[in-house]
Amino acid sequence: MLSKVETSKGPKPKNMDSLRKWFSFSKGERVAIVTILALILLLILACVFRPSRKSLSDASLHNLDSLLALRQAAIEQQQQQQVEKPQEVAELHPFPFNPNTITEEEWLQMGLTDRQVRNIMNYKAKGGKFYSKNDLGKLYTISEEEFAQLEPFIVLPEVSRGKILKLLLKAAFRRAQRPQMAQRPLLLKRKPSPS
User: Fold this and answer.
1) Most CB within 10 Å of its CB: which of 29, 67, 116, 126?
2) Distance CA 67, CA 17 (A)
3) Comparing 21 with 54, which gets the higher pLDDT?
4) pLDDT above 60: residue 184
5) What is the rounded distance in angstroms from the CA atom of residue 79 to the CA atom of residue 86?
6) pTM, to two decimals
7) Which of 138, 136, 145 is nearest to 87 (CA)?
């Protein structure tokens, strides 16, 4: 009789089972690992084949020098034009005036430009008033030189401290008369909770 070769599937060693538990992955985990490895490989390839920052070649240095020379020439030309053409101050023909009551035509007769007059009229239309001579100089369209020519001719009525105080009190009274302001409590007090 032929003898059968005994192949026994005996018990597996415990070490193999514990290793398989730790090193076996589900399908989702395997896909994630392959994806991460592919991304790492792409990053490595991108770093290897990326153009390096080599020193500038002679041609690019020449181009850079010519650009710098052109820029310097343009700056010098601009400075020369500014020296040749000083800031033109408009020829003003001032006369005594109150900037709060003067009309557009009178501003134009004085020698101000249309833009300056529009700016002043917009300021007055929005409730602006000139309380001192310096208030006119604060407008951005009037240069310091023009203001220096106009300042001696500005005539403003004297405003006494009493009149200023009266205006402030009047404004405070109007504020107190507003219903939404009068009804609003200054401090919100908590009512004590019944314990």
Assistant:
1) 116
2) 73
3) 21
4) no
5) 11
6) 0.41
7) 145
Q: Domain of 142? A: 90-179
The β-bridge partners of 97 are: 154
- Say what the alpha-carbon torsion angle 63, 69, 71, 73 is, to the nearest 10 degrees: -150
CB 99 within 8 Å of CB 136 = yes
Please, what's the b/e burial string for 135-166 (b: 16 or more CB within 10 A of its CB; e: otherwise)?
bbbebeebeeebbebbeeebebeeeeeeeeee
Euclidean distance between CA atoms 112 and 94, whole angstroms: 10
8 in a structural domain:
no
State percent of the chain over pLDDT 90.
Answer: 18
Residue 104 covered by a domain: yes
Q: How many residues does the chain have?
A: 195
CA distance 137 to 140: 8
**Does position 174 have pLDDT exceeding 60, yes or no?**
yes
Q: Is residue 77 in some structural domain?
A: no
Choice among 105-119, 134-148, 174-188 with the minimum mean pLDDT: 174-188
CB neighbourhood size of 110 (10 A): 20
Specify whether the CB–CB gap between 92 and 111 falls below 8 A.
yes
Q: How many domains does the chain have?
A: 1
